[in-house]
Sequence to fold (435 residues):
Amino acid sequence: MLWIGTAGKRAVLCALASLGAIASSPAQLYINEIYFDPPSSLDIRYEYIELRGTPGASLANHYLIFIENEDNSGGTGTAGMIDNIFNLGAHSLGSNGYLAFLQKNHAYSTNSQATVLVNSGSGSGFGSGAGSSIGATDAPSGDESILGQIENGGFTAMIIRNDSGPVPDITMDLDLGNDGLDVPTGKAGWTILDAVGVHSDFDESDFGRLYAPVNFGLGGPLPGATPTPRIPAGAVYQEVGYEIEYIGRWGNSTGQTIADWHVSNLTENTGTGSTGVAPDFRQSGDPHATDDGDPATPPVQPALVETNQGVLYGVPLTTTIGGPNFIAGDYTKDGVVDAADYTAWRDSLGATGTSSAIPTADGNLDYAVSTADYDVWKTRFNTPNGPPAAVAAAAAVPEATAGLLALVAIVIVSATIRLQELHPRFAIITKRSAA
Fold:
């Protein structure tokens, strides 16, 4: 279910302005990925945060904060308290425009062009205060039993630039009275550059409060009624119906709409093709497919895949740290779907692989590159931030030719296979959010 706080685009634009003018500029900084609830209680090693912006930019006076969302039916919860702070001031973005925070003892692979910060302090996870080597601070009264983690139940993540206000502190309550931010920018003298809100707990979906222009929730269990999300006027809220563990921008998106974000549940279940060993986390589904023991056999797609962007069950999603996020059809892995991806598909046509060596242009995840993968590219062409629509319309979209098809050493069953469609409920939600 998609909620809009007030009707019409004008209200949405007004709300964005009141939330700190999240406007495009050369110095813009975005929340790119947050993996906050790895499976099997691995929260103290495999959570990570990724930011994106102007390559090489200094982040002096910038902070990433996580705001508590918990409230209750009486409005007397701790919503608005700052739970986590990542002081960005001593850092700069990498030469490719990315910065990543990782926990102690992680085993991820990262992009060499990105700024990658790993906690080597005395504290666990991201660390906290003197126990963090990367400038992280965790509220000691937070819900997590161990410092150095992000709360699994939900939060509003927010990048702020402190122009002339107070330095963010975990004692700050930005929402006295639990009725919305006391100051539209969090505090006087702050500017909000980007924000996103998440509920991933039943009770918090019922009563929690979020503070971003775009917000997502699991959905509440209250019998007989669906509570109205507590979000800013003009903000939007998508109820996804599954546990949220990961949120990231869809490719290199920069907007503030539902379609700009990928909200997902991840798993190391071997039915996805994963080795079953962290950090080989992949797109999850419910119920999980069972493993047939053959790494060359594509994942069995369950009835419901836990994604709002139609990502296939088994797609690796934590292999892009320090670089552009996954987007279907992006065969060059640069965060957009454009003509270069057609070339990548054409050059790898006929290639085959396995779950541990997925072919470059295998868009439908069947471990073989065929015309079905061309269809995936064609469907996603020009999204997001690809060639301008007018240019794309004027240019002829390349078609698969007989000469190319002759290169395929397998029998082509169909030239019109499309990506597996979302569950009807979520297809309707996506259609409404794009209207």
About this structure: Residues 331-418 form one domain. The chain has a mean pLDDT of 84. The longest strand covers residues 190-199. The first helix runs from residue 9 to 18.
